[in-house]
Design a protein that fits this description.
By secondary structure, this protein is an alpha+beta fold. The chain has one domain: 2-Layer Sandwich (Creatine Kinase, Chain A, domain 2). 43% of the residues lie in helices and 15% in strands. It contains 14 helices and eleven strands. Strands 1, 2, 3, 4, 5, 8 and 9 form a seven-stranded antiparallel beta sheet that branches. A two-stranded antiparallel sheet has the order 6-7. Helix 2 runs antiparallel to helix 8, helix 4 crosses helix 8 and helix 10 runs antiparallel to helix 12. The relative contact order is 0.16.
Length: 363
């Protein structure tokens, strides 16, 4: 019997955020196993927002579906406000970075669930060096046709989305030179990559059920593509982002996803050979906003210029106005260095990786 891939409709352009954060000791900045304590420090109405993750020194904030970006952003600020006293009392920071920057004498303790035991059996040592943290943003769609157009466009623009969030040039005490080293580690696993484009929703269903029929996956959740369709939620889940430490940047990223999704419903999606999409993806991982971008076989541009062109196009077509957005907030973000470039500059100036990690603390 095939997997159920029937689309469960969502209200158009609703938003949900999943944000993975490190729990680090306030002094040593090494992983601290405090998930349960932090959960208990929150009021009852906020506890459902906090989810357990692979490490006991890690938590995930998950916001319920909301009409737009305002509600989840308010929820994030409220959670951090409640945890300020807890962080001081228990001696921890919540840090938004894509990787574990500092070497730890003892590896972080894992939550060994039945699902994780299965992963250990399949992936072995790969999961012993897997200290990565990301942000997943769900955008809701009322039907699979619109969702698929947005999905295809988001694959095309994934390098820009990653470049705007890349925050992991350091890993366990060393400078990797790769602005999103999180994605390099993640892509060691199968099905952890930019996905193929699908012409029809039937093509997507066939793809999923070929994986399922071969015994490669048990559920849709076992497909770890950087962008994936979630028919069970009625969303496209965008998983390209490194964890970052700037709530306002996350807010603008959500707005950009909603604007691209709105554009997709009216104007369809941009096409590019998959080998060029993969090359653009590599450039973004390596250089973030300083990368190049192939818009065609003989059409190489600066990624930042492609991003500016996108924002001006969304503005000129009236997409931003329909959503109540201002072009300036996107342009201001593009004029700033990426988080990774800012981190590299501060690490060099301060000659201290610990100061950089403290800078990335949300509480």
């Amino acid at each position: 019997m095939p997997l159920n891939t029937e689309w469960n409709p969502s209200e158009a352009l609703t938003v949900g955020v999943e944000w993975e954060l490190q729990i680090l000791d306030r002094e040593s900045l090494t992983p601290k196993n405090l998930f349960e304590d932090i959960l208990n420090d929150l009021p009852e109405d906020l506890k459902p927002y906090i989810h357990k993750e692979i490490y006991k020194s890690m938590l995930e904030i998950v916001t319920p579906p909301a009409a737009d970006e305002e509600e989840p952003i308010k929820a994030l600020y409220r959670i951090f406000d409640h945890l300020k006293v807890s962080a001081l009392r228990r001696g921890y920071h919540l840090v938004g970075l894509g990787t574990l920057f500092l070497e730890s004498e003892r590896p972080p303790e894992k939550n060994i669930t039945p699902r994780y035991k299965r992963f250990i059996e399949e992936f072995g040592e790969l999961l012993d060096d897997f200290y990565i943290y990301g942000i997943h943003i769900h955008i809701g769609f009322p039907n699979p046709e619109w969702a698929l157009k947005a999905y295809n466009n988001l694959i095309y623009y994934a390098p820009i989305l990653l470049a705007l969030s890349a925050s992991s040039p350091f890993y366990r005490g060393r400078h990797t030179g790769i602005h999103s080293f999180r994605t390099v580690i993640f892509e060691r696993l199968p099905r952890a990559e930019l996905p193929p484009r699908f012409e029809t929703y039937r093509d997507y269903e066939r793809h999923i059920n070929e994986l399922y029929g071969a015994g490669i996956i048990d559920t849709i959740k076992d497909v770890w593509y950087h962008i994936r369709l979630r028919p069970d939620f009625g969303t496209v889940e965008v998983r390209v982002f490194d964890s970052i430490f700037d709530v306002e940047r996350i807010k603008v990223l959500i707005k950009l996803l909603r604007a691209i999704s709105k554009f997709s419903n009216i104007y369809g999606y941009r096409e590019l050979p998959h080998y060029l999409i993969k090359q653009n993806w590599w450039y973004a991982k390596r250089y973030s906003l300083d990368a190049d971008f192939f818009a065609g076989t003989f059409n190489r541009k600066a990624l930042k210029h492609v991003a500016f062109d996108l924002i001006f196009e969304l503005d000129e077509l009236g997409i931003l106005k329909r959503l109540g957005y201002n072009r300036g907030e996107f342009l201001n973000l593009l004029r700033k260095p990426s988080p990774a470039r800012d981190i590299e500059a501060k690490a060099k100036a301060w000659k201290s990786l610990k100061k950089v990690v403290k800078m990335a603390a949300l509480v």
